[in-house]
Amino acid sequence: QHLPALTALSPFPEFPYFIHIHAMKVKVLSRNPDDYVRETKLDIQRVPRNYDPSLHPFEVPREYTRALNATKLERVFAKPFLASLDGHRDGVNCMAKHPKSLSTMLSGSCDGEVVWNLTKRECVRTLQAHEGFVRGMVVRFCGTSFFTVGDDKTIKQWKMETPGYGEEEEPLNTILGKSVFTSIDHHQKEGVFVTCGQQVDIWDEQRSSPIRSFSWGVDSFSCVRFNPVETELLASCASDRSIVLYDMREATPLKKVIMNMRSNTLCWNPMEAYNFTCSNEDYNLYTYDMRYLDKPFTVHMDHVSAVLDVDYSPTGKEFVSASFDKTIRIFPKDSGHSREVYHTKRMQHVISIKWSSDNKYILSASDEMNIRLWKANAAEKLGLLAPREKAAVNYSQKLKEKFQHHPQIRRISHHRHLPKSIYSQTKELRVMKEARRRKERNVRKHSKPGSMPVVTEKEKHVVTVVK
Amino acid sequence: MCLNNKLSEGDKINLSDLIGTLDKTPSALIKTKKQLKNLQHNQSTLETPLTRKETEKIQREVAFEKTSKEVSRWQSVVLQNQKAEQLVFPLNQEPSGPKRIEHVVAGWKAQTPLEQEIFSLLRMNKQPLHDPVLTPTEEASLRAMSLEEAKIRRAELQKTRVLQSYYEAKAKRGKKIKSKKYHRVQKKVMRKEYLKQFDEMVKTDPAAALEELKKMELSRMKERMSLKHQNSGKWAKSKAIMAKYDDGARKAMQKQLEVNKDLTQKLVIPADEDEEDEEESAETLPDFVNDVEPILDQVNPWMRGKLSTEPMMEESNRLDPPVWPREVGKPGEGQDEQEEDEEQMEETEEESLLRGFEERRKLRQTEDKAEILEISDYDEEAVEISDDDEEAGLSNFTSLFHGLVNHMEPPADQPKAGPGLRQGESPALLEEGLVRVRTLEDVELLSQDISTSDTALLTTQILGTEETDTQSATQQADKKRKKMIDPNEVLTKEAKVIEMPLAPTAVEDVEDKEEQRVIIKEAFAGDDVVSDFLKDKRKQEEAGRPKVIDLTLPGWGEWGGLGLQPSRSKRKRFRVKVAPPPPRQDQKLPNIIIAEKRDSSIAAHQVCQLPFPFEKPIQFERTIRSPVGRTWNTQNAVQKITAPKVVTQLGAIIEPIAREDLIKDNRQAVTGPSINLESDQGPQKKRRSQQKKQHKRKKN
User: Fold this and answer.
1) What pLDDT, in 10s, does the model give residues A301-351?
2) Which residues of chain A have a CB within 8 Å of the CB of B630?
3) Is A423 part of the contact surface with chain B (CB cutoff 8 Å)?
4) Which DSSP string do the residues of A247-295 spell out, in sequence order?
5) Alpha-carbon distance B26 to A396, whole Å?
6) Compositionally biased, Polar residues: which spans (chain B) (predicted)?
7) According to a count of CB atoms within 10 Å of the terminal CB, is the N or C end of chain A lower?
8) Starting from the edge strand earliest in sequence, which strands make up the sheet with A340-342, in order?
9) B608, B420 Cβ separation under 8 angstroms
10) A113-117: strand order across its sheet
């Protein structure tokens, strides 16, 4: 703005003054080299930026395009399947995570069991643990030994280390029970474990008879789990369609809730002491707050067949479920629908599922003798990321989140391929559900007002709470 | 004890036998004898113990209560984690960086004599040895009270002290005053004040008043017992001698007696009588007193409007003040009304015209259709007849009404709305299909496919942006039409219109079925919805009309410059008249505005429903409008904005949350203010949000 004045003053209007002279001091335009010189030549070139919004117009459309591209790329890079661990000669019935080592994993099949090394994707050790099914297995909290239960009515404790040359593969400890055990779980910090079968038994590792037994009019339990946070609490699924809560310190069970159909397994949230999710025969999963059992606080729907197993991510934000419909689904813990579905052509009924304790992988064991390793986030790049890469990933993630409601982006990010059978079954179920709802509505319309109260989806599935 | 034993051993022994033997024994056992006798007399049997089932049930319930209470301690932690901006797993990471020697080396001892001397000195003065942060006394003081609290407390104390000293000084000054009159007046004032207080107390706090009354009663009793004011004391006797001659003494004695009389007078509690009176009066009053009083609020046009709707139906059985028709004006407001300017008058004329139509319509009483629309129908005529000038900026209600009408309007659109709604209902639902996406082209195809199929499905959407666009457009058009009128003025005028109670818009026969309509009517009672709607529609039409495009450029073929206009012929030549657009869809539908601004090709890319956490479109737009990327934000801001919610460390095992976390959290909650001092010692919680807070505190 001063330029015209200066030019007017200067004797040569072509050369306006750029050098100001003040009291005999010459001021020259100067720059600090720190602002533009790199410290090393490996540094990125410094780019001075002007954040004036008028210089960078169309911010919303530009970011929208970026978000769209990011979602497209995410779908393109979504390749969750990592590896298949084959070697079992019968269906894999159960799995166990190692509490201290990420790369070690145990699996029990219908005829024996195997210890796996995941990084090398190879079997490290095989042992014949039981005659018949291995029903359940769990690694002791210290990671030095593990317990198995089988159809031969025994509980066996094994060393984690491979026996040396010439040593025989023998269990550390064998307990002979009266009936078949169906599931086992170990206490988080003490030498106490729990089994279930005809009743829920709590065992001390040092004793050969249970220190406590719970039964409450039920004769067959399918699953029992210790609460990982409040370590004295237990929950079990029983064949009379109920979920029973226990406290190890009390003489009696705490409470039970009876649902419309049987729950197969349950899993406690590792970050929220009072929440657990159970997988049910009626294709749904239910998340309960153990203090308010009269209705689940979320019903997770999407599977098209019985849900067989469920496991929480170690962050407690999501869980993964395995189903008889040959798919695995990942649910956010408070969402009614899944965010992801995994399936492969050859994967049969998924029986057991585990989320690795670094929150990166999912392991699924299925009928057709294979264990599969999946990524928990399908499009995630594995391995170390450079800082710039990380920043880019974060940015695109944020963009996707920002524009997630826009229809185009939504459609792309939510699109999943499904096998035809499951797709048609989903459609069928939807039609059935809609029909049921319509019928209910019509009945309500034609009955006396108030005589047909509206029952919410959450309330529908609980029969009673038994105190 | 021995008695019990005997009883339990043999059942042949009777209680009476035992008592008999006891009779022979000396008096030491009288007490037990009595007890036994009582036992004999007592015939009631003990209750049978509960069944096992029931006891177990009770046990279970108790146990459940206990555990659920125990588990509930986690609630705060869980909530905190849910709300945290960022969670870094594993939760309890050791802080990176060098540690203090004391933390690493456990068994370090002062060995050299110098060290020992120093440590003994420190210990003697109770100075902290390892982490030189706080002495125990300092810590204790911190725990006792935070700085802010202490400051507040000190200020309070200072204030009270000052007040006290003021009061003392005042009292001293008052005490020194010798004037009797002053004191008398003072006392009188005090008494009056006391009485006033007491009256108030009767109203506000009857219990305390009763206490006071009791006190009075007590003083009366005392007075009656004592001879203090009964002229029997020494002073009174001396005065009695003087009384014959001295008028003053007589008066003094009289006063004494009066005081006595006053004090011994029985207190009459008038409250009950009053209540009775009140009750009586309440009975005599007519019923309508109990009705809700009509609020004649000058400020709130809504209330006034509502009033104006009712009288037609209820005038007969209510004694409400009559609603003054507009032209007449209320008696109180008459002057104000007269002062209103010309525009206002025009407005009123128009209003009266409208009302005339309304009345005629009422006479005719056509059958029910979509009622509001009907009104608008009639009013359209009215407005057409009346002056056009009064067109003004949109009132808020118009846009609201607009939205409402749009809601009610298209029965044809409803099936369209279906899928869109379903989309909105389940945001998490995956769209599962048989198409497998492998490459970018597939994705492209997918989106295209959907967009083409979607365009037909998408609902008519009135996004906020669009609306604002249209509004601004209409406003611009307005400005063009009447350059002379400042929009603000127009708006104020509009507000005045709302203030007037309007009868005509609400004159309808009310039916129970049409609750919705009634609600709408009540909601928009005060303002002239119908004419607003019409104005709105006309504006839309105006905006949709093609404008003449002026392509004249100055300077070509003639002189150009400041203050010079291109010649008329040139302007004429370069003016392009655009062909009129196809007739509006709502041309023949007087009750409807069909927004033609909506571009279906764009609509397919727009959000058609407000996503869940947002409550207003503006909020959502704001989030969309603020850019995230590096082009628009500084490096630090970008890092902060794009920080992921959950961060996990590569290859680290994430343990379930431990009880220690809970305890730690609780402790932090308790010792809130001391966090910033303790934060740099010991293993730290890696919760970003907490750290941020701490940083803020540090800055403070």
Assistant:
1) 999 999 999 999 999 999 999 999 999 999 999 999 999 999 999 999 999
2) 395
3) yes
4) ETTSSSEEEEEEESS-EEEEEE-SSSTTEEEEEETTS-EEEEETTBTTS
5) 101
6) 668-682
7) N
8) A307-312, A318-323, A328-332, A340-342
9) yes
10) A92-97, A104-109, A113-117, A122-127
